[in-house]
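Build the 3D complex.
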Amino acid sequence: MKNKFDISFARSLDEKDPLSKYREEFYIPQHNNVDAIYFTGNSLGAQPKNYDYYLNQALADWKLLGVEGHFGGKSSWFDYHKNLTKDVSELVGAKETEVVTMNALSVNLHLLLTSFYQPTKKKYKILCEPNLFPSDLYILRSQVELKGFSADEAIVFLPTNDDGVCLEDDIWNTIEANSDALAMIFIGGVNYYTGQVFDIKKITTIGHRYDIIVGFDLAHAVGNIYLDLHNWNVDFAAWCSYKYLNSGPGNVSSVFIHQNQINKKPFRLAGWWGHDSKNRFALQDKFEPINTAEGWQLSNAPVFGMSIYRSSIKIFNEIGMKNLIAKRIKLITYLDDAIESFNALSKINLKIITPGKPEKRGSQLSILINRDGEKVYKNLKDCGVYVDWREPDVMRIAPVPLYNSFEDIARFYHILFKCI
Ligand SMILES: Cc1ncc(COP(=O)(O)O)c(C=O)c1O
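Done.
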C-alpha cells in the first residue's frame, strides 16, 4: 500500500476532489519556477485571476466619463458599495440592510465601538480574549479611554490554558461572574494567534441574557467558517476582505449591524456618504442617516479596491460555504495526520494548539515549536513554504480549500523532515 503522504497518493486525493479545479482560478506565488506551498491565505489571500474584471470597467469609465462616472458607466460610483451587498450578506448570514462595505477594518471597528460601546458608571467593562489582535486591543483601550474610563481596569480578559486557548466553561463562567459590570463582549470570531473558533451563537446568547452588547472581529472567520449573524443575533461585526476573501493587500472592510440595533438609531460618527442618498449632494446642514447599515458610511466609496473585492467574493457563493467547509475539514484532517506522523517518525513534538476536532476548526492550525522555531520558519521559507511565525513560539499554517491541495500538504510533510 502506498504511504498516505506519498505525492502520488496526495495527487489521487486531489483528483477525487470536486473543488480542485478552482486552484486554476488563482495565481499561486512561485518559488524556483514552481508553485510555492502557499499556506498564508489567513494573512493575505492569493490573487484571483479574475481580479481585474470590474477594475477594468471602473478604469474605463473613469477614462471615458471622468466625473460623470458617478452616475453613468457600467456601474455608477454613486452607489458602488451596493454591488457588494448581496454577496457579502449571503456569506455572513445577514439581511442586505445589515451590511455595508467601507473603509478598512480598524477604522470600522472604531466606528462600531463609537456606536455600541455606551458605558455607564456601573456597566462599563469590555470582555475580550487575551491574545486578541494588537490593533483590536489598541482600539478597545482607546475607546474606553475616550469614554473616560481606565483601560487597565475596564478591559477584562478571558482566562486561557497554557496554550493560550479559552476553555468553554471558563468563557461562560467569566461572562456570568462579570455580568453586572460588562457593557460589551468583543471577541475575534476565530482567534488570529491560536486559530481557536469561538462559539459565536452561544457567546451572543449568554451575553444578551445579561444585557451585554456582543460584537466580533471576523477577519479570520469570513470565508473560512459558517456564519449566520442575523439569526445568531450578533449585535455588530466587522472583517477585512484581504485574507480568506482574496481582495488584495489592505483592501476594504465590511461591517454587519443587526437590524435590532439599526432600529434603535444609535449615535454614530457622521459623514456625507451615510446621509440619505436622495439628497446626499444637496449638502444640507442636518445629517439624516440612511436607515440601514449604509448610514454608518463616512466617505465616498474607494471604487478600485471595491471592484477587486467584487470579483474575488463571487466565487464563495458560487461554490457555497457548505462545500468549501467540507473540503476544509478534509485538508485540515490530512494536515493534522501529517504532523502526527512527522512527530512519530522524527521524535520531535510539534504541538498543535488549535483546539477541537477538524470539524470545529477553521483553516488554520497553530503549532507550538519550543526550540529553534524561528530557524525552522526561515528554513521552510527557503524551501518555498509560506507559513508565518508569531512571537514567541507559534507557527501558523493555513491550507485554504479554494486553492490549496492535498499535494501541497504532502510536499510540506516531506520538506518538514529537511527543515527540522
Ligand atoms: C484579527 C485582525 N483584526 C484587525 C486587523 C487589522 O486590519 P486593518 O489593518 O485592515 O485595519 C487584522 C489585520 O491583519 C487582523 O488580523
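The pocket of pyridoxal-5'-phosphate is lined by residues 104-106, 133, 135-136, 188, 192, 217, 219-220, 240 (CB under 6 Å).
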